[in-house]
Amino acid sequence: MTGTEETKLLTLIEALFNGQKRTLGMVEAAIEKFSTVETEITKLNRKMNSLQELATRQHAETSTRLEAIISRLDETELVLDERSRDIKRTQIDVVGQYNEVLTALQDASQAFRVAQDLESRLTVIETKLAHG
Question: Which residue stretches, if any, does this entry annotate as coiled coil (predicted)?
């Protein structure tokens, strides 16, 4: 090989080395960025796990509260049903008492008419005895 060829070869090898250095620098930068992204993903995964745990606890607590509310509503419904039956029984009793009062008033009205009739007859008899 001649000196010129050696110089060209050395220039090409130097260009190759410089290209490899730049490539290694870019690979190194990419690895650093990947490492940063990986770290951020790990942080996000931890936060997501925390959020999922919180959501699970909240769901359990909400479910427990909801079950308690449903239980109270069932109890209230039973009490309301019982009170409704009490009201119906009382209504039947009141209607019965109302009917008894009406019957008593009718009987009293009939007795009053009989008494008036009897009084007018007595008045007639007293008038006859007084004139007679």
Answer: 27-61
> What is the enclosing helix (H) or strand (E) of 8?
helix 3-131
Q: Which residue has the tokens 């769901």?
A: 59
Q: How many Cα atoms occupy the beta-carbon half-sphere of 74 within 13 Å?
A: 6
- Cα–Cα distance measured from residue 108 to residue 114, given in angstroms and rounded to the nearest whole number: 10
Residue 11 structure tokens: 């220039």
Could you report the per-residue pLDDT of 73-119, keeping only the tens digit for each? 999 999 999 999 999 999 999 999 999 999 999 999 999 999 999 99
**What does the DSSP assignment read for 39-72?**
HHHHHHHHHHHHHHHHHHHHHHHHHHHHHHHHHH
Distance CA 60, CA 130 (A): 102
Contact call for residues 32 and 39 (beta carbons, < 8 A):
no
Give 2's DSSP letter. -
Provide the token pair at 32.
């650093």
d(CA 41, CA 49): 12
